[in-house]
Amino acid sequence: MAIRVGDIRRGLNIALGMSNKTLWRECAGILEALKQYGDAATLYEKSANFDKAATVYIKAKNWAKVAEILPYITSPKVFIMYAKNREHEKMYKDAMNAYKSAKDYENVIRICLDHLKDPKEAVRIVKETQSVDGARAVAKFFQDLGDFASAIQFLVMSNCNADAFRLAETHNQMEQYADVIGDDATSEDYLAIALHFEQASQNLLAGKFFYKAKDFTRAIHYLIRVPPGDVDASLAIAIECVGVAKKDVLTHQLIDYLMGEVDGIPKPAKHLFHLYMSLEQYREAARTAIIIAKEDQSAGSYRHAHDVLFGMYQELAREKITVPNEMVQNLMLLHSYILVKIHVKRNNHLNAARLLIRVCKNISKFPAHTVPILTSAVIECYRSGLKKSAFENASVLMRPEHRGNIDPKWKNKIEQMVRRPVKTEHEEVSTPCPFCKSEIVEMDLECIECKNNLPFCIVTGKHMVNNDWSECPNCKFPALYSEFKEYLLEGDADCPICGKPVKPADVHLITESELQQRDSERSEPSK
Predict the structure, then answer these.
(1) What is the model's pLDDT at position 141?
(2) How far is CA 475 from CA 243, 493, 502, 514, in A?
(3) Which residues contact 435 (CB under 8 A, 6 or more apart)?
(4) Three-class SS of residue 280?
(5) Which of 130, 125, 128, 158 has its CA nearest to residue 143?
(6) What is the pLDDT of residues 214-241, one digit of tens each?
(7) Neighbours of 191 (CB within 10 A)
(8) Considering the entire predicted model, what is its pTM?
(9) CB neighbours of residue 13 within 10 Å
């Protein structure tokens, strides 16, 4: 009542002497109406109505008090009023923080660029908030600075693709523009880029963007007319393009190019392999994979040859296509060679020797390392008591074409083996054929009784037996259960053939009845 009759000081003291927030708010409202802003704001603040208190402090131009209660304010309107004042007073850091609290990101970005000269923070905020207007402001900042690549990036972010394209065209930044628009642009955008590169005689990029624009004919036209340094990159795109287009005329154009009929230079077989895979022509891909693996094997790239054949084997199995016997035999031979190192490391020299004997019977397929492989075979055979096999391989090494290439460290010993031969040999262990149950030497992979090719164990290279059958849980290749478990428990954590991690607990014994059920399922006609 004292405030209403004009005795403001007495009324204010009475109100402050009481602990009643509702009373404080009512009195603050009366004081505000009477334009007693300082006292009104004090009561609003005391009643914890901080947004209203800040609004009235602003009317009183008491910016210091606004700053004091800023942590308790929630109203964007109050933050913006405070930010404008701070900006007017050139307190730009405070202004930026207040605009940020109000989520007025366009003004945050403006303050960062125009006053704080902090483009890094402006860029961070634009990327975080995806503000279109903010991106446009950042683009203008970089354009004025002459940083056209950055300007293009933010023009695209602000949906100003046409402006970004013109800037890219003017300042030779079309590749940057193309990278920025990525895979989310329209066919019209890609066509414009393709036409630019076509005019600039940049065939690889013209072909790439005609492909993205779904103009497959023009894409192939340019992708098979690139300089030598761009061939691998262009072929990767061309193969993908033909796979999507599924037009015979384009496929034949690309095959002609791969065969060298366009420029007189036949391309590596790996590209033809990828083309057939893209077209889902798995039989042709398999034949090409065998050719690639042979080339790699001849060059001594055994791991790569192994991986090519293994990958193709898996692909054919997925498509339920019969794997060519030549592919199986080549993979087995390469895997046998790779297993040697594993068994030497495990001190299983007898298994290593047996594997090397298998490899040496096909030594013509390892021309890059004939002498080292034969030498290893002699050493491992002799060490494991296979003296006859050691002598036989030593005799091959003594032939004129090999003798001069023997490591001097072993040459005298090998010569002594040939001069004073010892032809004792451990008798080989036999185990049942998984098909006809006939006893077959465990390292033999063809049954002399039923004439079947026998599946090999990925750990030992021995043929599989039905009462000790397991498989890798990843690639499903077979392994002798007892050998796979031992291999994994010794600390080797990866499958020897696919290279993926395997836990011992994930390897299970597969029963004969389960194998028979699988055989009946596989007996369905293959593709």
Answers:
(1) 72
(2) 27, 15, 10, 18
(3) 447, 450, 452, 454
(4) coil
(5) 158
(6) 999 999 999 999 999 999 999 999 999 9
(7) 18
(8) 0.64
(9) 11
